[in-house]
Specification:
Elements lengths: L1 H35 L6 H15 L7 H18 L7 H6 L2 H23 L4 H14 L1 H11 L3 H29 L3 H11 L3 H8 L4 H15 L2 H10 L1 H4 L18 H14 L5 H24 L3 H4 L3 H25 L4
Helix pairs in contact: 1-2, 1-3, 1-15, 2-8, 2-15, 3-7, 3-14, 3-15, 5-6, 5-17, 6-7, 6-8, 6-17, 7-8, 7-12, 8-10, 8-15, 8-17, 9-10, 9-11, 9-17, 10-11
């Protein structure tokens, strides 16, 4: 019995360490909320930064590594499945065809432009994909969902999240200052925030100064934008053979074209079940809570895999690519709002 439990017991130290870091990140976000009413850095970003800060001064030994690998692997994949409960495909029908199609066009063009900017600035292929996905859709969640599909390492994931988070905070602070010069109504400004700001809490923070109409418009557009994560992960999964090299010991060509990881299938299935009202309402909140908790633990594990001193050597290029991508996204979003007559 003890021998059968040994593999599981080996995971405990690393998982416990990640849980501690995730809990500290949650407490810091609560302190932000108490001080500023809205958190500028959410739990996921804080978990990455705390883990990376700890890793910079201390390298986890063999005792911790099995749990860290498990947290950054199966736990993260399970969290991605549970994220499907946060998506409601019925929002597309309720908003009418023009707005979702406009958002989809902005996301697609932003993905292509962001990826191109990253490659021009010398980012590796996988890093450019991560920055593009995080910028175009929903920041941390998109990066976390895309990373396993393309085989991105912990350093690449942490780099993309860290620098995207910094720019995201800057956008929340700066976008309201630009509003008078843009000549947008409260609703139009809310839509611009929903199309450009990365996280839902940050959308609320960016739109709060302009009233409830702006907040409602921003939240709706943001949720519609998050729906684009499903088609993105599906498309990347279908291209997985080209985006991700075979695993060690896996024969080239053995994996069939269109290979799709189990967690992406689970993500799409849960989103579909939710849209068909087949997921009990009482289960939605626990599923979303579990997704957030597991993602926070996984982000702590990813942070522990990154030495910030090494991260600094690639920071300029990543930051430049993320900044260029953000400017493109703002321009595309303004164009779509004016084209649709929503300004």
């Amino acid at each position: 019995m003890i021998q059968a439990l040994q593999p599981s017991l080996r995971l405990l130290p690393g998982i416990a360490l990640c849980i501690g870091i995730a809990l500290a990140a949650h407490l810091l976000e609560a302190a932000e909320r108490q001080a500023f009413r809205h958190p500028w850095l959410d739990t996921l970003v804080l978990a990455i930064l705390l883990g990376a800060a700890l890793r910079t001064g201390w390298e986890p030994g063999e005792r911790w590594r099995p749990g860290l690998r498990f947290s950054a692997g199966p736990l993260l994949e399970t969290a991605i499945v549970l994220l499907g409960a946060s998506l409601d495909l019925r929002l597309v029908l309720a908003a009418g065809p023009a707005l979702p199609l406009g958002i989809a066009a902005v996301v697609l063009l932003s993905l292509l432009a962001s990826y191109g900017a990253g490659r021009i600035l010398g980012l590796p292929h996988r890093m450019a994909v991560l920055v593009a996905a995080g910028n175009a859709i929903c920041g941390n969640s998109a990066i976390a969902a895309v990373a396993p599909i393309i085989g991105a390492g912990a350093r690449e994931v942490a780099s993309a999240i860290a620098f995207t988070a910094v720019l995201g905070v800057g956008l929340v602070l700066g976008l309201p200052l630009l509003a008078p010069a843009l000549g947008l109504s409260a609703q139009g400004y809310g839509m611009l925030a929903g199309m450009t700001v990365y996280a839902v809490p940050q959308v609320l923070a960016a739109t709060a100064p302009f009233g409830s109409l702006s907040m409602q418009a921003g939240t709706l557009v943001k949720l519609l934008r998050v729906l684009m994560l499903g088609p993105l992960v599906l498309a990347l999964s279908l291209l997985a053979r080209r985006l991700r090299p075979p695993a060690p010991g896996e024969a080239a060509g053995r994996r069939p074209a269109g290979y799709m990881p189990w967690f992406i299938i689970g993500f799409l299935l849960l989103a579909l079940l939710n849209a068909l009202s087949l997921v009990p309402q009482a289960a939605l909140a626990p599923l979303r809570l579990a997704a957030g908790l597991l993602t926070g633990i996984a982000m702590a594990a990813l942070g522990l895999g990154v030495d910030l001193r090494a991260l600094g050597r690639v920071g300029v290029r990543v930051t430049a690519a993320a900044a260029a991508s953000l400017l493109v996204l703002i321009g595309l979003s303004l164009g779509a709002i004016r084209l649709l007559g929503l300004a």
